[in-house]
């Protein structure tokens, strides 16, 4: 009798233990929900998503955190987690793998193709950033001149990503010419302009000398035969000075003379040279010697030393 009672009690214990492992209807429902949620999470992580507009990839769930990469419209990403505002994604850009956070609003389950109006270039002047392209748009900040920028042409504006969000700047303030190329172009233009100016001045000087060397009409005055030499305005040829004995600039048309022969300030006409004015002196300029200023060393060398007729005009 006691043995049968023991067996009966043992059976009750075993049945009770087995029933403990059988879930109730509500427990079974909860378990099913867990499975669905896990499956949904797995679908999100394995599903291919597209980026529907250019956006920044942040290091953490904060728009002020470090930007580790810029994602372009049409890029594909793998989603690891979707939160209330941000989504954690992994992406491969130029054979490099990145993991970071983007605003989840930039994710698209449908394929997104790159925008044909995509623009890549630089800001050519410091420009304001606005939250929309409307006239009453709110100013968000400034972008410095020569900053590299990417965006999409939208009428007269460029739609860009500014700290992870869509913003706008004026398209006229952008260029596809890099600062390096621009500086090289401007330097080349300045060089060409300088060369043209130098050539113009050279021609004007040559024309002036040509006219000066032409025999003038009705030149009258006392004529002296003198031994002439030539020099330029280079201070190294003038004892370090850049002005004449009269304090005027050393230039074409200036003659160095012996004041005992030709007083300073005298207007002259030199055969083969043209009109000149006695404004300078020199240690070696004594007696019937005259030293004439030319515009270049080449012209001075061509003149060399020669005997000329000098007409004193006043």
CATH architecture of the domain at 221-313: Beta Barrel
User: In the CATH hierarchy, what is the class of the domain at 221-313?
Assistant: Mainly Beta
Uncertain regions spanning at least 5 consecutive residues: 1-43
Count of helical stretches: 4
CATH fold label of the domain at 221-313: Barwin-like endoglucanases
Describe the protein's architecture and organization:
The protein is an alpha+beta fold and 314 residues long. Among the domains are: 62 residues, SH3 Domains (SH3 type barrels, Roll); 59 residues, SH3 type barrels, CATH 2.30.30; 93 residues, RlpA-like domain (Barwin-like endoglucanases). It is built from four helices and 20 strands. The protein has a six-stranded mixed β-barrel. A five-stranded antiparallel beta sheet has the order 6-5-4-1-7.
Can you give me a brief rundown of this structure?
It contains 4 helices and 20 strands.
Ordered list of secondary-structure elements with their pairings:
Layout: H1 2-20, H2 25-46, E1 48-51, E2 55-58, E3 67-71, E4 76-82, E5 86-93, E6 96-103, E7 107-108, E8 118-123, E9 127-130, E10 139-143, E11 148-154, E12 157-162, E13 165-170, E14 174-175, H3 179-213, E15 222-231, E16 254-256, E17 267-270, E18 274-280, E19 289-293, H4 297-303, E20 306-312
Parallel strand pairs: 15-19, 16-18
Antiparallel strand pairs: 1-4, 1-7, 2-3, 4-5, 5-6, 8-11, 8-14, 9-10, 11-12, 12-13, 15-20, 16-19, 17-18, 17-20
């Amino acid at each position: 009798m006691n043995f049968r009672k023991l067996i009966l009690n043992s059976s009750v214990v075993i049945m009770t233990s087995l029933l403990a492992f059988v879930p109730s209807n509500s427990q079974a429902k909860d378990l099913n929900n867990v499975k669905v949620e896990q499956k949904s999470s797995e679908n999100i992580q394995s599903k291919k998503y597209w980026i529907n507009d250019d956006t920044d990839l942040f290091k953490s769930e904060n728009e002020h955190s470090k930007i580790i990469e810029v994602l372009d419209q049409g890029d594909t990403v793998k989603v690891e987690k979707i939160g209330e505002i941000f989504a954690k994604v992994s992406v491969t850009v130029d054979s490099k793998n990145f993991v970071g956070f983007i605003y989840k609003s930039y994710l698209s389950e449908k394929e997104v193709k790159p925008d044909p109006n995509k623009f890549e270039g630089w800001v050519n002047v410091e420009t304001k950033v606005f939250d929309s392209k409307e006239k009453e748009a709110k100013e968000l900040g400034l972008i410095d001149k020569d900053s590299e920028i990417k965006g999409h042409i939208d009428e007269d504006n460029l739609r860009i990503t500014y700290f992870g969000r869509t913003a706008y700047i004026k398209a006229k303030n952008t260029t596809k010419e890099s600062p390096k190329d621009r500086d090289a172009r401007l330097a080349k233009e300045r060089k060409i302009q300088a060369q043209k100016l130098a050539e113009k001045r050279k021609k004007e000087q040559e024309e002036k000398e040509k006219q000066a060397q032409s025999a003038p009409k009705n030149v009258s005055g006392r004529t002296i035969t003198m031994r002439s030499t030539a020099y330029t305005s280079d201070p190294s040829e003038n004892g370090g000075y850049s002005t004449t004995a009269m304090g005027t600039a050393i230039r074409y048309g200036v003659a160095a003379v012996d004041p005992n022969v030709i007083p300073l300030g005298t207007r002259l006409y030199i055969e083969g040279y043209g009109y000149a004015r006695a404004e300078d002196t020199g240690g070696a300029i004594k007696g019937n010697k005259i030293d004439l200023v030319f515009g270049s060393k080449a012209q001075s060398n061509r003149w060399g030393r020669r005997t000329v007729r000098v007409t004193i005009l006043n």
